[in-house]
Amino acid sequence: MSNLAIQSIGSDCSPFWIRPSSEGFGDSSRKIVNGIKREIAQMWGSESITFGRPLDDALISLLAVYRECSQSDWDGYGAAAISEDAYEEAKKIINLLPSSIRMPEITAEPTGEIGFEWHKGKGQVFVISVGGKHRITYAGIFSGNKVHGSEYFEDTLPLAIIQHLRRLYS
Amino acid sequence: MDNIDVQETLARYIYSRNHYRSSDHTVKHSAFIPPKDKRLSIFRISSLSESEIWSIGGTLRAQSLLGRADIKALSIWETGLSIDPDDTPPRHANIVGWPNEDSAIMLKAIELAEKAQLHLN
What we know:
The structure holds 2 protein chains of 2 kinds. In chain A, 39% of the residues lie in helices and 21% in strands. By secondary structure, chain A is of the alpha+beta class.
């Protein structure tokens, strides 16, 4: 349980939908978990909490994109094939997304990278992409304000990315 | 063809489901990410009928034509990009003037997608 709590309060807020063993996970533990969920939802100002199913859906969607775009010229304009490295890195991103953040739409990019798109509405969009090279490229529009840049990525989601996502959903 | 007018409409033909959202009928930024040579292929479609517009895109590639993203020339210029009308094949043009940085390119692509209108085939 303490492991769950520690993961949840970190600034990078690793996902805590990773299910512990069912042993000793009774009603009282569930209440504590639900309490943590509420706390995190307040902390992030989120609109939704995603557990289990959205994560599975995202991984299925990623696999579909990878299969569809693992050959070059998948877009008719000479697009680069999505590499296995890009696919593995994209999986890592999904698993690292804070559970309080809505799962993104997953898309292939003509550069051979995999993009994650949070589209809240007209003029409210944030996109990141990875290509298996330990670098996240990002860009976004927040009601007329524009940002773009890149961040080194290894095992944790860069704080800058989380901050932009919070900005989108605040 | 004549010089491009600000009100002229240009089409980016779409051959991959990755380039649009069926859910809200909008264009994804990936439709406007340029290839390595940084010349994003588009067609000048003002004054053409719908069937003429679709027939251009239907004959260009081996893939099935799924749709198109229509965008005004003015919107492209407002994004800080340029249009190079090479007319090869007829009515063809390229969006050029892309920045060097990948993230800056991504931002331009997002801006274009936000201004484009999706039409499905």
